[in-house]
Amino acid sequence: MASLSLRNVTVVAQTPLFRNLNLVIGQGDRIGLVAANGAGKSTLLKCLAGLTEPTEGDIMRPRGLRVALVEQDVPAGLADLSLHDVLLRALPAGERASQDWRVDMVLDEFDAPADLRTRPMRALSGGWQRLALIARAWIAEPDLLLLDEPTNHLDLEKLFTLEAWINLAGFTAPIVVASHDRDFLDACTTKTLFLRPGESVAFAHPYRRARALLEEHDAAAKTQRDKTLREVKRLRESAQELRNVGINSGSDAAQVKSAQIRRRADALEQSARSLHRERPGEIRLGNRGTHARVLVAVENVDVLAPDGRRLFTIPKLAVAQGDRVVVLGRNGAGKSQFVRLLNAAMTRPERLPGIRTSPSLALGYVDQDMGQLPDGSTAHDFILSRFRLGDQRSRAVLAEAGFSIDRQGLPIARLSPGQKARLGLLALRLSAPNVYLMDEPTNHVDIPGREQLEAEILETQATCIVVSHDRSFVKTVGTRFLLIDRGRIREIEGPEGFYESLAG
User: Fold this and answer.
1) Is 359 left (phi over 0), alpha (psi -120 to 50) or beta?
2) Which helix (H) or strand (E) holds 18?
3) pLDDT value for 181
4) In CATH, what number does 294-503 get?
5) Do residues 18 and 178 lie in contact, with contact meaning Cβ atoms separated by under 8 Å?
6) Using alpha carbons only, how large is the chain's radius of gyration in Å?
7) Residues 139-149: pLDDT tens digits?
8) 294-503 and 4-199 share a CATH fold
9) How far apart are CA 399 and CA 414, in angstroms?
10) How far is residue 420's CA from residue 279's CA, in Å, rounded to a whole number?
11) pLDDT at 281
12) What tens digit of pLDDT does each residue of 46-68 get?
């Protein structure tokens, strides 16, 4: 493929998303696109796909370039098609009858069960919907593949499947992927573009190495800016001294020289690049105190599937203050059912047999779909009615969490997934718990938010029971690890062996 080039590309929404972006995408490139939520990643991908025009600048595409964009949501026209037909429709109409075998080959690559292939898209899990859209794009053999948050909704097993496919399937067309999953970016990309409103910065390295280089770049830029501003100050002082000399002595030459120095200072000040300040993660946690040593104790409790099948039995489990328990297991093992069972035991007045909680326990609960948020309410009304902070304080805490006044008045159903995640985590903090029960709390949370959540958990010494497919998050916060496997739950030393079994 001939390269696709961006020259001085700028996109301005209400404020600039990015300016003067120059980028060349060539054969074999795998570019990780990194920025906070709302910073323009999806917009840039749409520009590359030709679906949106930039405000300024040029995007030069070779004639006949075939671009496939995998967006975050399933297109409405695909919802009633079977998994098999979604892929088949991606082929040219004249080739579908003779090339049907290619659909089965791709579905085999993704280990899609036979019964799943005939189900309509709307009946599939979020993870299978994501893989279907990615496979649909790939089977069309595009010259450029664009992936917008491909790991959203993927459990660990499917995430490893996706990583293996990108790295081993022999797909040589360039890929540009927007993601907040740091381990995924490290595993699947060779270059990183940090998208910024001012100067975007790119490095020919995967995320973590590029992140270290970015910090060096920003430190050097700050040093240079400080040096330039010191010189501007010196020039202005010199100009003022010359001006005083000219006024007191009546010297026109001193006045002219003073004006020249002032103009030089003005030009230097204009050239001093303003420094990029990364928006901090808008997540804060609180930790209500308790003197209880053991907050949750479970003994001989069955965890059941929604249809009543026994998934596994918990012989004995005690969660002490300060424990950060990570629950691991393959998809369908019962992780979310375990979390729901604990939530029910901690919130119902009549406790479930076999589960004891401390009288001082105060629960903070988040499920992976933010189902605890009332879709029909606005963010403002939800915070106001749930926590009774008063109108002004409710607006203030929402603003601190990144919600503008207009967003505060929107129905929660109309908020983006990232905004819902921020609202759910804000409600978690305001409930002032001493036990956090969290099922995939980093879903739709950007990298600054994930790092802030990690830092808050560590700083507040929070007691947590967590399910997460974010490997960085798990490794950072976990102190205890429970593995659900083959109908049993047991404590293990760390998550690495489990990850290896999935990747193998």
Assistant:
1) alpha
2) strand 16-25
3) 93
4) 3.40.50.300
5) no
6) 27
7) 888 889 999 99
8) yes
9) 18
10) 18
11) 47
12) 999 999 899 999 999 888 888 99
Q: What is the pLDDT of residues 237-268, one digit of tens each?
A: 888 887 887 777 777 777 778 788 888 887 87
> Does position 307 have pLDDT exceeding 50, yes or no?
yes
Residue 184 belongs to what H/E stretch?
helix 182-188
Q: Whole-angstrom Cα distance, residue 89 to residue 149?
A: 23
Beta bridge partners of 21: 9
Q: CB 57: neighbour CB atoms within 10 A?
A: 18
Under 8 Å CB-to-CB from 311, ≥6 apart: which residues?
Answer: 302, 303, 304, 305, 333, 334, 337, 484, 487
Domain residue extents for the chain: 4-199, 213-271, 294-503
Q: How far apart are CA 500 and CA 201, in angstroms?
A: 33
Report residue 464 as tokens. 């947590």
CA 339 vs CA 114, 234, 336, 463: distances in Å = 30, 63, 5, 14
Total number of residues shown for the chain? 504
Look over the chain and give the mean of its residue pLDDT values, rounded to a whole number.
Answer: 85
Is the confidence at residue 326, as pLDDT, over 90? yes
Other Cβ atoms closer than 10 A to 101: 8
What is the share, in percent, of the chain residues with pLDDT greater than 70? 94
HSE at residue 436, side-chain half, CA atoms within 13 A, is 37
Q: What's the CA gap between 477 and 455, in Å, rounded?
A: 9
How much is the pLDDT for 273? 62
- Side-chain-side CA neighbours of 252 within 13 Å: the count stands at 0
Closest C-alpha among 477, 478, 473 to residue 492: 478
- Fold that domain 4-199 belongs to in CATH: Rossmann fold (3.40.50)
Question: In the chain, how long is the greatest CA-to-CA distance?
Answer: 98
Torsion angle in degrees (nearest 10) through CA of 233, 237, 240, 246 = -140
Helix (H, G, I), strand (E, B) or coil at 423: helix
3-state class of 265 per DSSP?
helix
Distance, in Å, from the CA atom of 211 to the CA atom of 194, rounded to the nearest integer, reads: 9
481-503 pLDDT tens trace = 999 998 889 999 999 999 988 87
Structure-token match 């026209």, residue found? 77
> Among the listed ranges 226-235, 343-352, 396-405, 486-495, which one has the minimum average pLDDT value?
343-352
Q: CA torsion sign, 230 to 236 to 242 to 244?
A: negative
Per-residue model confidence as pLDDT tens digits over 271-287: 776 666 665 544 555 55
> How far apart are the C-alpha atoms of 115 and 120, rounded to whole Å?
11
Determine contact, residues 349/357, Cβ cutoff 8 Å.
Answer: no
What are the tokens at 210? 């590029």
Strands (E), 321-370: 324-329, 355-357, 363-366
C-beta separation of 49 from 146 below 8 A? yes
Cβ atoms 412, 374 nearer than 8 A: yes
